[in-house]
Amino acid sequence: MQWGQIKTLFIICFLILDVFLIMQFMDSRESELGLLPRDSTNEEYLRLNVNGLDDLLDEVRRAPLITASRNNFSEEDLSTLDAIPNQEKIIINENIIFSKLITPVEINLADVDKGAPVESLQGKLLNSGNYTFWEKDEDTNIVILFQNMGLPIYFNKNGVVLIQLNDDDEMVSYIQTEMVEKNKSEEKVLGKAIDAVSTLYHNQGIIKSGDTVLDNELGYHNLVTSSDGEQVLNPTWRIKVENGNEEEQNYFVNGIEGHYYPREWNSFLEETITEFLEVVKLTTTDNIELLSVSEEEIDKAELIDEMIAQLTTTIGNNGVEK
To answer: Where are the transmembrane segments (predicted)?
Structure first.
């Protein structure tokens, strides 16, 4: 046999051996990783790659769409508000409450879960039971509460309480708005929480393999705002995730159509405070009502100036352009 033929035979043998070894390696990897068959569903693949899915709410949920708008506080509301002691309040445009406490008051947040009412605020806020705890921002020392209409309303400046704390974690002032229901649709069947996780993993690529779902909750998110200020609130899943770096983040997915709502806590806080500051700057003594428990006569213009100074300081502390 000629040397050239022998060399060709050796090359062919080595190629066959290489192919065999590659196939053995792939079979081994498939066994180690537990790879799914090609006809596996997205949910099975999701469960293989994302942790914490066994704790997701699995029952079929139903909820209506709600049409709502910012509430203009009634005489009854103002009477209730006026009876709250230790506060000087101004109501701007009939729908925003700015309140300054005469003596700071301690509020207990130690045992308050996200989405739960703050019991220690009872008797210190108008309709305090209709608001639930979201988060405390360490940069500004502001506590945010979201209004609840059966479910919490996420990131809506028309239904929010922003509580300013001092260095001793005592409440020194707050801003409050409230939404009122105008209409409610028939209840809609919603996608499950795992469908929201699937959207974040398969469609958005936000959740990564190895991440852990820590919590899931149903709430409302503004779907559309009409020209008259009315909003359509859509049932929305909140999915809390811990990534591989042990960082936690909340994500929001439309419970009916599955759209992802990009929402950042810090940007919402900045935008809301900035908007309230602009409202205060444009207001006059004619379009505010003063409710005070102080025996001394309060100057409306002075109180407005104090609010402007405080909001400006808060925005500056949060790194926002004034």
So the answer is: 6-26
